[in-house]
From TrEMBL:
<dbReference type="GO" id="GO:0005509">
    <property type="term" value="F:calcium ion binding"/>
</dbReference>
<protein>
    <submittedName>
        <fullName>Calexcitin-1</fullName>
    </submittedName>
</protein>
<dbReference type="Pfam" id="PF13202">
    <property type="entry name" value="EF-hand_5"/>
</dbReference>
<dbReference type="InterPro" id="IPR018247">
    <property type="entry name" value="EF_Hand_1_Ca_BS"/>
</dbReference>
<dbReference type="InterPro" id="IPR011992">
    <property type="entry name" value="EF-hand-dom_pair"/>
</dbReference>
<feature type="domain" description="EF-hand">
    <location>
        <begin position="14"/>
        <end position="37"/>
    </location>
</feature>
<dbReference type="InterPro" id="IPR002048">
    <property type="entry name" value="EF_hand_dom"/>
</dbReference>
<keyword id="KW-0106">Calcium</keyword>
Amino acid sequence: MAIRNCWHLFHTFFDANQNGTIDKKDFDMALEKTAKNRSLSAGDAKHKEVQESLSYVWEHLKKVADRDNDGTVSTEEWLKMWDEAISAKQNPPWVDRYQSFLFEAEDVTGDGKVDEQEYTTAYTSYGVAADECKNAFKKLTNGGPDTISKDVFEKRFQEFVTSNDPNAAGNYLFGKASF
Ligand SMILES: [Ca+2]
Ligand SMILES: [Ca+2]
């Protein structure tokens, strides 16, 4: 994966409390953000589903990446996980579930498509500037429909992870329009 994408994913999305490592607390914050964006209350079936997805992602991320078993994933451990995944041409085992979580977190109306408004709302909650989100969404959907389906989302995710082409649309999946 292009190294900038690797760090963008780490610092903007996974290390939610920005303390330089990924641990359970970051996933608790991700749950809070998602509940707020989607107006979910604790006890709702949907809230429970999101919580289960995030636990799954964290448990599997920890299993594959936390080599020294200290309960956190450091930047070195994160990088090593991706290096190995890319060499093996196989996504880490938590990726499918994370994609589904993220897509559903963004698709507020639940119509199976993410539009510019939904994309911007989701990523501004992770601290990406709204203008940057809007520009990134244009690049992400360049030449296609103005919404992202789950299939397209998954294709762009693979580009984000594996492509070294700075013009690949997948670079814009996580709200960053300039590098
Ligand atoms: Ca953290
Ligand atoms: Ca560790």
